[in-house]
Amino acid sequence: MTMTPGIVRVVVLNFNGGDDTLRCFDHLVATEWPEEQLQLICVDNGSTDGSVERLRAAHPQVEVRAQARNTGFPANNLALGDLEQVRYVALINNDAFVEPDWLAPLVATLDEDPGLGAACPKLLLASRFAEVRVQGPVLVSEGSGGRDLSILLRGCAVDGVDVWRDLHVASGGWGREASTLGTFEWIGPDSVIRIPLPSTSAEPADDPSANPPMVALRIDATEACELSIDGRPTAVRPGASTLVFPAPASSVDVVNNVGSIVFEDGCGADRGWLERDLGQLDESVEVFAWCGGAVLLRPAYLADVGLFDESFFLYYEDTDLSWRGQARGWRYRTVPSSVIRHVHAASSGEGSEVFAFHVERNRLLMLVKNAPARTAVRQALLHLRATASYALRDVIRPMLHAHRPRITIVRRRLRSYLGFLALLPATLAERRVLRSRRLVADRRLEPWFVRR
């Protein structure tokens, strides 16, 4: 491939990233690209864990742009405002790890089409996963229209390494919940659990003579029963217990993101999220939005549309910037031949209070800035209605029956809404500017929005 002259800048945002940030740059310096045309920048958000000092010692060629306090994901703007001599600029999460040949396909895609503002790699979850089928009786039934539940999952380790945070239920699960005992998830009578295999565990398929990794799955059962673990009968006693069994002899890659989608209510989502990577997303296609976890951007696009909205702090900044670009006529394309692995939500923790507050607040702010007025107003009102229904279920009814109210969800949703109202005047002013500059009518963007 003949290289067009010009520097490609790669920006990594760090906030107490520790080993993840060092590993990220270990991979980046191995990028198959002329060294003199690759500029690596770490934007530091006031880290106090020594990660900046460690990075400077390990990779002195990396430029560090540090600030004293944490301003969230929009701190990337510190490395996006001086791109006059830069050919393209990439954003890579500090918990993402590139393959050596990740960059060339992205550059080639932008080179071939000047109307593209962004090229999106295939983002896979960092671990490979062992899929385990768990079958058991219905031990808890919530009645007509409710859930049929079998057992609780409470934790998991592989070869002694805790992998509970990244375990997910591919089918038959009901999502993570929390109690005073920690997080848990109910599964139904026929479920498939994906168990992440630590890098310290050799994949059995690589060496048939090697001992398979051993899984220790912590569960809770309301009564004694018999489960089937990949067809093996397993007796379970009531209460908490740990099931120990060998991991299956094969593992799978799981998709994190191959471009992003937006639903009609403004909720953003990863295209391909938690699908097994079987090549089904390997065709390059145009998408509505790109993911800030890994993307290659055209400086002319940023100069035209602007940078990240600093009021967002965390989440939806990339979807907002994508939408603003769509309204100006920019397009985005997936490049699945570029592969990057990502430790999903390592920084903020999906499901955490920080995550929930910013996701709910920023979705409404994004709609006020970019969506038709009727959509923004409708979603703001629906948020209030849903909050009222949670208040009735979790606060009012328990108090009427002399039970302790559960205020977590209601408090969180009210905090998000109050945060939205505080930023509403400035957001409305920004909306007026954006609407005056749009080149693409709302009706032309409507086909992008996905119905649930």
Which properties best describe this structure?
452 residues; alpha+beta; 10-stranded mixed sheet; 10-stranded antiparallel sheet; globular
Topology:
Blueprint: E1 7-14, H1 18-28, E2 38-45, H2 51-58, E3 63-67, E4 86-93, E5 96-98, H3 103-112, E6 116-125, E7 128-135, E8 140-141, E9 148-149, E10 151-158, E11 161-162, E12 168-173, E13 177-179, E14 182-197, E15 214-221, E16 225-229, E17 232-236, E18 239-246, E19 255-257, E20 260-262, E21 268-270, E22 286-287, E23 294-297, H4 299-305, H5 317-327, E24 331-342, H6 353-370, H7 373-400, H8 408-437, H9 442-445
Describe this structure in words.
The longest helix is centred in the last third of the chain and has 30 residues. Helix content is 28%, strand content 31%. Strand 1, helix 1 and strand 2 form a beta-alpha-beta unit. The chain has three domains: 207 residues, Spore Coat Polysaccharide Biosynthesis Protein SpsA, Chain A; 105 residues, no CATH class; 96 residues. The chain is of the alpha+beta class and 452 residues long.
